[in-house]
Protein 1
Amino acid sequence: MAKRTPRGSVTREAVMDAALAVADRDGYEAVTIRALAAEVGVPPMTLYTHFADKAALREGMRERAFEQVVTATAEGSWQEALEEFAGNCRAVLRAHPNWVPLLAAQTGAPSAATLRLFERVFDKMIADGLPPAQTVYAVTAVLSFASGCMLFEGLMVGAGTAPLPTARLDLVRRLHSPDQHPGVAAATAAVDDFSFDAVFELGVRSLVEGIEKLRGS
Amino acid sequence: MAKRTPRGSVTREAVMDAALAVADRDGYEAVTIRALAAEVGVPPMTLYTHFADKAALREGMRERAFEQVVTATAEGSWQEALEEFAGNCRAVLRAHPNWVPLLAAQTGAPSAATLRLFERVFDKMIADGLPPAQTVYAVTAVLSFASGCMLFEGLMVGAGTAPLPTARLDLVRRLHSPDQHPGVAAATAAVDDFSFDAVFELGVRSLVEGIEKLRGS
DNA sequence: ACCTGAACACCGTTCAAGT
DNA sequence: ACCTGAACACCGTTCAAGT
């Protein structure tokens, strides 16, 4: 599967890191084969030694970025592990808003780092009495929520370019006619400190509590 | 803002519907200006009468697709309204898996249809005693989860091309070495009827319950 | 004034020429 | 055998020529 590294040349990891760096600096769309080749310092066609096509490049970028999420400690309850996991997703994507589109990339086999994280969480949940099957549901739900949250936040604040207060103001301003939508106007007017952090925490906490209830079933 | 429709030509809505049809039939990537022009039956450059650039086209597609979600009834509690809303998101995206990448498109002003939905949900939540500010958090959380769920499902089953049991089997097969990850292996082996529907329902229910708790605060 | 054909500056990828 | 330059078939968009 994995092509061997051409002698004396860059590694696959270095290529993926360079691609992530280009996305960080110039935007997700700027990651072209030619631009990446310039970044790495090799002729464009040489890059195909490290991936089959552009979809494979994106998948490699996504997996490489995900490895930064999997820095969880081995301590604590599964509840804490799940919250830390979600929090790491958020931290990484807030630090690198241009990586958000990678969430929509096709997936391949999970990396060893990913499996190590799942292993730890699954073990804790089973030890706590959760039905083994439900652990998969739990992790899927939390990961989905975290992904959707980041996607939605990027959508509303323009991929992290605007500060959060601006996002709220924009939301209010976008209301075409407050007269026709008094409920929306009242709700948005009452939010004077809207924060995606709060939405994120509310969601993760609610999901964890919902999962906890599965213990008795 | 909106360019006026050229006389005797197609409307903006028709262009967006045609774009959604192309995505449905040939895939999201196949929606090029030239392919869309052929679908509509006009010269490529004529399309720029209806949108400024490709990003605006994608935004128009997303908004148009979202209008299919906003078919909620006016009856029932806000809990039911939120669940119906999330369910509609799921139904539309499962019927049109090639539209999933639209979730990552930049957003513009919400359409009148979107506001009408929010209006209804906000009104119900406020009438039920929820703090007005929290209603925004609630809707954001549910919408984020629904989006993330569809994104994640599309990621795992290849944008709806594979049936769900296959998705589970793939998940298990992707485990590099079951020996090294007994917890993961046990958890996935115990899941003999993994269903994204169940994850979706678990998540939506948990989020709604988490929001309900805000009533007293 | 509005519409749109031709042209431009890209893009991902093929393939055969180089080594 | 492996690497990669040139070439191909696209792409979104500009712009000036048409009406």
Protein 2
Amino acid sequence: MEQDYKPHEIETKWQKKWTESGIFQAEPDKREKFFITIPYPYLNGNLHAGHTRTFTIGDVVARHKRMLGYNVLYPMGFHVTGTPIVGLAELIASRDPQTMDVYERLHGIPGDILPTLDTPEKIVDYFKHEAEKAMRMIGYSIDWRRKFTTTDPTYKKFIEWQYIRLGEKDLIVKGSHPVKWCPNDNNPVEDHDILYGEEATIVEYTLIKFRYKDIVLPCATLRPETTYGVTNLWVNPDVDYVKARVEKDGIEEFWVVSRDAFRKLTFTDRTVEYIEDVPAKSIIGIKLTNPVTGEEVISLPASFVRPENGSGIVMSVPAHAPFDYLALRDLYDVDLSKYGITEDLRKIELISLIKVPEFGEFPAKEIVENMGVTSQKDPRAEEATKIVYRREFHGGVLKEITGKYEGHAVSKIKDILTKDLISSNAGETFYEFSEPIVCRCGTSCVVNMVKGQWFLNYSNPEWKAKVYRCLSQMRIIPAEYRVEFENKVDWLKDKACARRKGLGTRLPFDKEWLIESLGDSTIYMSYYIIARFIEKGDLTLEQLTLSFFDYVLLGKGDPKAVSADTGLDPKLVEEIRRHFVYWYPVDLRSSGKDLVPNHLLFFLFHHVALFEEENWPRALAVNGFVSLEGQKMSKSKGPILTLESAVSEYGADITRLYILSTAEQTQDADWHKAGIDSARRQVDRFYSFAKDVIESGKRANLSMELKQIDRWMLSRMQNYIRETNIALDAIQTREAIQNSFSCS
RNA sequence: GCGAGGGUUGCCCAGCCCGGUCAAAGGCGCCGGACUUAAGAUCCGGUAUCGAAGGAUUUCGUGGGUUCGAAUCCCACCCCUCGCACCA
């Protein structure tokens, strides 16, 4: 043993031995297997402290399982599909100052190399080489024979197979979807294009179609169930309205909406044509038909109606909406004869449709009276609205008046109800921003519908049901995240799965489109098994046929038929299948928590859609982020700490120890100087302690009988080992380190 | 707004599921000591407040409640972080 701790010497020595002996090259054998995967890194930069944490957790679990006697496979690939690498190539080609600075200074790319990385291909080549080098430097126990890049032609064959099979199951559908759009640039706006309103999201409203003669007055609402309680509409006498011909799915109608709403409609998936201006006065005092109840409702004037919100016409539910109740009450003694309204508005009866424990029949009336809200201009009206909506949404149940929806929880009924409204043409979906968005060019943005888009049909209830079943059988680490996963499955809607730009695989049944990058990284863990044979030279591109994948991954068909199809030896085909059967399913997929609502979810969806239940994933683990001296990392802007620079400066063991001991599980870790320095001292101390133990071991008489104190020592030791094992099983690396090092 | 997580002693953080042994683990910092020519490293002790000490007092976001007893259980409220989609 050396006198002083010299990490780089020790590390180089052992890493060399590992590579030469191929000790981490896993092959099926008699032992029980453990297949652990970590999401492969996206290569628009060097690996950083965030990767370091996630990958080190994976490596620690892999090594621990090996110690416990498992045959462990820990593979790694490289993700390059999508647009960011293309964007980065453009920025480097144009010598964007910030990019050049960040990538040279923070990503550590030598100044003579950086300018040459001006195409996506060169970037991929460079970073995949660097990433592997870095991961070897930190000593990950990866089977490198199985590495691949998502633009490999062989990988594309695998992705094509997947999408053809998903398509056959009708899980890929065509449709349109809303995007944030700048009418001036004629382009979707991305977050960095936005001048004001970065926080804005697209909100789904339902337009309820109230009819008067041959015209429709659509009202936008977030609560379509309240249509059953509408007593009247609100029209603002001071707003400009227009009549338009609106056509959608072959149905032609004439709508009256505010001028602002008309502009928004022109960007939707409707054909819209201006007919004429409509004076507000002419649509006040008219009697319209409620499309769900068939009842007649009157339109009344209200100044609170904003032309830029929704359609500029509002439906009134005074029993449940404080503003509506107040506006109605404010009109009780107003002379409305100039609108031709002569009836006594006090005769308008409130219609109650939601039963909620905290309130009586008319929650809006009740809260307005209890809080003493004076009028629709009273600021407390807003507060009253929030309280009523919250109570009704969470605790409310629909009453008899809603017919077949009676007894359903308000919080659960919206999707079903909306679907019914649309299919009976009582309503339509309408998208709007939660707050106005202004593009960097100064134009105010709209919601535009992109047509002919391909979707993964994640909203499919049967598909979701399978995912729930899969989740219920899985181990989730930490356990608190189970509810999070369940919520996200519930929340997930259809997802656009194709793009025009970027790197990736073309959609096999519509070659104009590229498969979106999150959709091509869902079941690739199975590809690691095939990649090992491609690396060996046993498989060529042409031999990766549909029947090959069907047999190897699903067990469908038989080796002879595959052999006839591909020219492969049937024995080899069986061998590959045998490898798949041995390694699959994935025993643990461990990842940063940012991937919970997207990648990890899609990982489950695609597995349950394609594979037999016995090959569904067994466990998911989630870990937190890493910040630097309290600051969030950013690949494109900095700050960033690369894995390579951390290991160069501190050595692999100190880096690994520190990143795993500074925070537990889903907590975020902060990388700071004082912390890493203390980790360095801890390893130093341990090294000299180990040295002492070895030295004293040489002097001691080992045949001597154990004394009481030795037994105590052994007991303590065994206790720490047990605690460490328990902690590692739960992937509590901090706990494990504290236990295993407290014995020194 | 919705969903998830969190607010603990100078700081980071453990404990909370399974109430008492909790003035509350561990690390960092700080203070004192040992070692040293000295510094660093290492080791020992201390680190809410008052007291020499036994001990006493006030603490675990805020306010209530349950209980003989609450950081831990229940209710309400406040604050913080993250996600909310076609972007990896």
